Structure formats: C-alpha cells, structure tokens
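Re: the pair you flagged

First of the two:
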Amino acid sequence: MGSIPRRAIPLVATIYRKIFPQVHKELSYWKGRASQIPNQELRRQALDSIEDKTFHCEGGSIYAILAGDNRDKAIQFVVAYQTISDYLDNLCDRSTSLDPKDFRTLHTSMKDALTPGNPIGDYYAEREEKDDGGYLQDLVKTCQNLLGQLSNYPQIKGYLYELADLYCDLQVHKHVKMDERVPRLKSWFNNYQKRWEDLSWYEFSACSGSTLGIFCLVSYAHGEHLTEEVALQVYNGYFPYMQGLHILLDYYIDQQEDLEEGDLNFCTYYDHEDHMKERFLYFIDQTKLHVNPLPHASFHHMVQKGLVGLYLADSKVQKLQGARPLVKELLSVSGTKAKFFYMNSKLYHKLKPSLA
C-alpha cells in the first residue's frame, strides 16, 4: 500500500483505479438486495436512492485512502452507512409520511449502525410499509460488524455519536410538514447558537447534514494513524466548516430541483447572491484553517478543493441564475487544484456513460 497522496494527479489515479471499482462492487451487492425487497414502495425508494446518489458513496469512499491496508473495509463501511443515509432520505423526502415520530424511528438505525452489538430495532414501527426483507437490518449489521473489529473504536465513538445525532435531528426537522420545518430548525439551533455564534440557523443545519466527519474518523480508525488527539482534530477539522461547505454546495446545485419538488433548500435563506458568495468564501477560509492541524493536511485540503471543483462542475449549475461569477470566484479562491478537479469532474461526467 502506497502512502497517502499529497498531490492531485496521484490522488485522482488512486480514486479511479482503486476506490471507485470497489465502491461499485459494494453498491452492486446492495442493489441486488434492494431489488428483492418485498414491499413495492420500499423497494422503489431503495433502488432509486442507489441509482440517483451513487456519487455520495463515491465521494465518501475517498476517505478509505486513510485506512491503509484496510481500505476495502473502510469502503464497505462508507457504502453501507451512506446507503442507509440515502435510503432514509428518500423515505422521508419522497415517500408517504410526514410524521416526525416515523422519521425519528427510522433514523435510530443510523445510531445503531455505529454501535457494535446493539440490538436491531423495529425501524418501520411508525409507518405503513414495513416489509423490506431485512434490507435495512443487514445494512446496519454490516456497519456494526466492521466497527466491531476496531480495537480503537472507543476513541472515535463519542464523536461519531455527536455527528450522527446532529444528522438525525436535522433529518427529522427538515422533513415534517412544510410550515413546521423552519420553526423547528430555528428552535433546534437555539440550543447550539452560543457555541456557533458565527453561523445562522440554516448554515448550522447544513453543517449537520454531512457524513464526511464520520467517514474520516472511521477510515482513520481502520488505518495506523488514529490517536485520541487525531480523533479530536478530525472532529474539529470537519465540523462545522468542512461539512457545512459540503452541504451548502450540494444545496446550491439543487436549488431549481428543490423549488420544483417543494423541498427545503438552505441556500434560499441568504439575503442575495452576493451574501451567499461571501458566506461560501467564509466557509472555504474556515475549512482551510481548521484542517491545517490534521495529519495528512494536504489530503484534507485536496478534499476541500475537490468539493468545490466537483459540485461546481455539475451540469445543474448551468441552469442557475448568476452562477458564472460565483463559480469563477470560488474556483479562483480554491486555487489550481480546485480547477483541476473541476475540469476532471466535467470530463468524468462526459465519459461516464461510455465507462459504464
């Protein structure tokens, strides 16, 4: 196993040659399991979540590079955990319920997945559709088994729980009836406002909606570099700013889609385009500052630049009003590597149909 890439071209080569093929192998397995789900609605949502959100697993699995010789185990975890996340997101977003109790019960699976040996719960207790043929349980057990093999699991457990709790709270609050969403999110943020005075309620919500910190911690735990100090550095390095940058970019490109679907989009709460651009630049600056103390800082800086390049290269950006100056400035501030990832992502999207 080579060392962790410090430059963009070796990183991209590793991703395409060693990471993505394994991700697609894992996803192919879960797709097969999803296709056997007895309940039609659950089957549809499970298959759609894999089909539409493959890039979430691809992106998250880049952290497996930090796992050294245990790269494949880290990829297995990332794919299983992200598949739970994407599946539940579909069940809350596109399905038959608006019940916060249902959303809360579904999302206990994400906490169980982080707790080796925890009994498997009845995750569908509050909804009509129940028979998934053991699909969600198997995803949870896969994560539990992989974490159960880690002797250093106690060093990351508290941070995993904290990040997962924030993620699950967000998913509950943002999927209820439309007129209840913003009041619930504002009230939730009141508990954290003193600690994060520089964030608005909608930015804090965005920071809570990323799984990157969890994937980074688990990948380090599978490798040789984890200490208690590194675990704390990863938590501070990723929450809130790196995670916030990730999800704000995700929401930025989905603005038109969310408008059409009636989904909450945090980018719409900025006063105007310039305000949004100014805050994106703030998140980029803060991310740079907070990942500096991490081991393999150059890798984490590349992830930040990769996020900017990857999201801004998405074809949805072309349909957004005022996108061009924002894209130009964010790429300029993020530097040559971000432009490289931007061009590379555009090429990948173009070639992907012929690579499949």
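Second of the two:
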Amino acid sequence: MTKIFPNRRGVLKAFGAASVLLATPNAWGNAPAGSAPEIAQVGVGVLYGGNRTDFGYNQAHAEAVRALAALPGIRIEEREDAAGNLAAVAEELVNEKDCRVVFVTAPGGEALPSLLAQADANRDTAFLFCGAPLDEARLPMNVGFYEGFLDEAQHISGIVAGYASRAKSIGMVASHAAPAVLRCVNAFALGARRADSAVTVRVAFVGEGASPEAVAEAARGLAAGGVDVLAAHLDAPRPVCEVAESHGILCCGVHTDLSAIAPQGFLTGAEWDWGRAYEETVSMVATGKPWKRQRQGGFGAGFVRNTAYGPAVGVEARAHADAARMQLANGNAAVFRGPIVDNTGRTVLAKGKTIASADPALDRMVWLAEGVSEVGR
C-alpha cells in the first residue's frame, strides 16, 4: 500500500497546515466573510461497538483515538456501547456536534444500511467503517472502509506459542466459528505447528458477546485439560490471560497489549495498530485532499503488530517469529501457503499454492486446520 506520509512527522506537518486553514475566515463555513480569523477544530466522532476500556477490540481503537486527539486542530467526540443505536448516535455527532469525520468501529450487518443512509444524507462528513469493504461504486462518495489483517499477527503469536509449549498442547478461546474468526484461529495454529509440528490446538467457541465469566470458564476448562499455553480470539480476551496467570501457564493476547495482565506468563499478542489509518484519513479530510476510501493491510501497511515479547520467549522463537514477520511485511510470504490440510484430512490448499491476505477467499473459510480440534467434539 502506498504511504501517504513517510512517518508521524509528516502527519503532524499536515495537521499544522490544517490548523492554518481552519483559522482563516470562511474555512469550511466557520466564519462569515470580513470577520476576524477564528480558530476552529476538526470534529471527529468515534462510535464504539462496546466499552472503550474492554482490554480488547474497542480499546485498540480507543488507543489510536487518544493519539489522534493529541494532534493540533482535532476535537474528539466518543460514544460507547452504541450498538443497536448507531444511526441515531451518528446523526447526533454530525448535526449536533459538527463532526466532519465519523469512525464506526463495529458497524454490524443490521446497522450498516441505516448508517449508509445517514452518510448519504450528510455528504460533508466522511464516514469510515471498520470491516471488510463493500463495492465502492455503490456507496456514497463520503463512505470508506478500513480493515486490518489480524491473522498475520496471530500467525506470529502462534509461532511463539509453538516454541513455548512443552506439553505440545495449546488452548484457544474464540467467539464463534465465523469465517473471520476461523481465519485467525487457523493462522495461529499454522504458526504453532510450523514452529513444532507435534503441537496441537484445542479451541473452545463461547459465542459472540460471551460474558467474562463464560470466557474464564472456558479457559479454565482448557487449562484443566492439560494445555500449557492459552490464547484467544474474541472481543474481550482479558479473562483468558488472567486464568493463564493464575494457573501458572503461558498466554498470548489479542487486540491490545495485555502483558500487564499476565506479567509472568505473557508471551506476545496480536494487536491492531490503527494510528496511521486514523491520522492519515483525518489529515486528508482536514486539508480538503482526496482520501483513500478502501484501506486494507497487515504488517506491510502498519495496521497490525505484535506485542513485545515476554520473558518466557527464547532466542530461537524470537528469531523465527521476527523473520516470519519481516517476510509477511515485505510480501515475500503468506500465512496461508500450501500444502494445508484440514482436521478431517482434506487438502484445502495444494503444495505450491498461496492465498494472499487480501484475497476474499479467506473470508469464506469454513474449516479448521490439521492439528486443531474443537472442544466438545
């Protein structure tokens, strides 16, 4: 993906220019002609699908928003737990709070049509939805999508976990068996088994919106079953790391940095890194420049990262994980490269074949990889 700015300094420079623009009369309708210059700010609204301090998916977005708020000329309006009422809250942000950019972290299938209707009715506001993009030609020109390939970072976590597991048994607590979730579960498992082909992964699906108690119960069940590393792929993974630490076993986080939750046993984690996407898009809107409506990427785009290694990660594991991450970032490797066999023995990707991270085929995944078993089956 082409970089709009080479680094954060470029973003700051653009926001400085935007501050000058916004201080002039009539800029974006802020002052009548002939009046004294008035300092204005770019209003940015953020609609979270849940609590922004959930130690998970929403917190990852909130951390990027905090960085955005530190830039000059930016006014942030945040709304939490807006699920089920997204369109009404979006209308408030645009018409009452004068937001010129609105980010929606979890638009959801049912809410998306009403959100798109809001966007169509407010063409002066840029609406950015986190998730798989839709057909650009069918959308209002002020609508965009941003998506990160978290499976790349989960793959690196899997490599680290594969080296760390002495029992050669890893447990993962996941939300539900949807393609996007299976993609990350399999990416993790492929990494673990590329580190050690004898490693197996047991996955417990707890359902979307599972309570912290249900997540912790699933993690305890996996620990009682003999796994010595726990991982997760669900919106709020904190209980998984807490259970791992209390049982004296290792763990990997997801979405945001969870190392403080398990200071003794934390290995690494698969994190979102939304700072660049947020800053670059807002700077383009603020300066009236064209902005990219569809943004996707993994390590190469700077949209995902791994948490710093914990003390239990050895030299060999670090070297393997670092090399794999570099290859993914450079486009010289793929998470899903054949041969890959599913857990029924069926070849799902032939030797010599690869599926790139941007390939929509990954969003239709219905299988679990070899060495992965579902708890209760």
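The mean pLDDT is 89.

-B.
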